[in-house]
Amino acid sequence: MRIYTRQGDQGQTSLFDGTRVSKDDMRLATYGTVDELNSWLGMAAGICRHEPLRELLSQLQHQLFDLGADLATPIDSPNSSRVNRINPQHAANLELQIDAATAELPVLKEFILPGGSPLASHLHIARTVCRRAERHLVELMRQQPTGEAPLVYLNRLSDLLFVLARLANKLDGHPETHWHKQP
């Protein structure tokens, strides 16, 4: 299979159902940002020395791939049944992960700055990319039906990534940096 098809040379691409859309379509911006997020999680997993956390990051990457396919396939598409759609159980599972990770951390009483260990820093970047994907999805939802589950999933995922960044700092022995109002 060739990597290049020349099908996008005029600024258009195909959705999963074959519909041709402009490459600046909000649907593409949304699932493209999900793809960027997936890449950041891959980077984080690549430097992670903690097996349970690395396994969780891998699971999240697979879910993000499903989310990308979900977003690349309009709900009313004839191919819709061939796609693993994100559903409410996905967000519920993220909540369980958030609770488990939070239980291992000290109570947060102040704002913290993003950063710390290399792993935590990558997870903070992933969190901000996740928030951007969420904002794109909100805009897409004003234009086209997508279902509610993907938005809830991204919202919970960004929360999980914040908690995982904190956990990574703890596991790597790196103190969190508290924000101090500057004079």
Describe the structure.
With 183 residues, the protein is mainly α. The protein has one domain (21-171): Hypothetical Protein Ta1238, Chain: A, CATH 1.20.1200. It is 59% helix and 3% strand. It has helices spanning 26-47, 51-71, 88-103, 118-143, 149-171, and strands at 12-14, 20-22. A two-stranded antiparallel sheet has the order 1-2. Helix 3 packs parallel to helix 5 (149-171) and helix 4 (118-143) packs antiparallel against helix 5. The chain is elongated and about 50 Å long.
Summarize the structure.
This protein starts with 11 loop residues before the first strand and ends in a 12-residue tail after the last helix. With 183 residues, the protein is mostly helical.
Number of strands: 2
- Unreliable segments (pLDDT under 50, ≥5 consecutive)? none
Q: How many domains is the backbone divided into? A: 1
Percent range for β-strand residues: under 5%
Q: How does the helix and strand content classify structurally?
A: mainly alpha
CATH architecture: Up-down Bundle
The largest sheet has its strands arranged as 1-2
Distance between the termini: 59 Å
Question: Secondary-structure blueprint of this entry?
Answer:
Layout: E1 12-14, E2 20-22, H1 26-47, H2 51-71, H3 88-103, H4 118-143, H5 149-171
Antiparallel strand pairs: 1-2
